[in-house]
Design brief:
12-stranded antiparallel beta sheet
Length: 332
Amino acid sequence: MYNTLIFKVKTKLLVLLAMTLLSSEGQASKLDKGNLQKNTKGLIHLDFEAFRKSKLGSTIINWTQAKEGKESIDSMLEEIGFNPFTALNGVAISTNGEKDNGILILKHSADTKRVLSYIKLADGYYATKYTTNSQNTPIYIHSVGKKRESREEKQDDRGYISFVDKNTAVIAPSRKLAGAGINLVKGKGGAKSLPQISKILKKAKLPILVGYADIDGLEEVIEDSNIKDMVREAVMVLGESDGRFVLSLQVVAQSVETAENLYDMVNGLIGIASLSQKDNPEIMDMIKAVKVTRKQSSVSADFVMSVDKILEYADPELKEFDINLGSDLNKK
């Protein structure tokens, strides 16, 4: 399912973007429903700014930079002009459920001219002007990849990108969808409300990753019949609250009976894991941090644990880098 949501943004285009859009610190990038398609059936939102602000994220970044070494970081800054640890500000991916449908909207603070200088070096590059009813300056949709050699051949190897404004870019698998993304950024046709997302966002003060799937509306892209038979809707958030790592998942089953079966199955798996890991205190602590609840046809699983504990279990060496990045990261 996620492969479809990411909608085949091509490798070459992604590499070019990674070489340029991962530059400088930028504004926060909270989930904006206006950047999602009107009939959104699935979405993924990554807030990299929240990741950098979180205790877990800042620690991992500090640890990684220390592993790379100052000379290595300075060399990268000199050669490619950006700090790889001050990444994108935010990425919002949405799909209406149709196969190969999806729009990715990037929040960044890159030099657009520099981005284009890389993109224009790619094979098969061309650009077309996109016209909106209320635009003062022209907007272009840039495309790279293998050109179609015949009418029967699909254009699966092409990627499309448009720099709508100074801090926003749209990527899509077709020019038509790129145009739809431009309209979203311009405030036209965005999602009106997402109550399921709004509710679960309250689980984490710093939501880093948010996902939503209307399983019934994703029949064209979900091949597993078991999932479709059991689940109607799923929503999740991964983030941090007051020094605690939070991972919450809520599933709406197709029926109350199915929800009961899911609830019993998850608790049964937790019980088996507890018995098999009773002599492993670290694993037992993680198992105990999971709480599963059910309310009618909804089943929720919440994992909440101190970031300090997670860092300690992951690698004791990480504890040495448990500091706030602050201005040190921004200097890069």
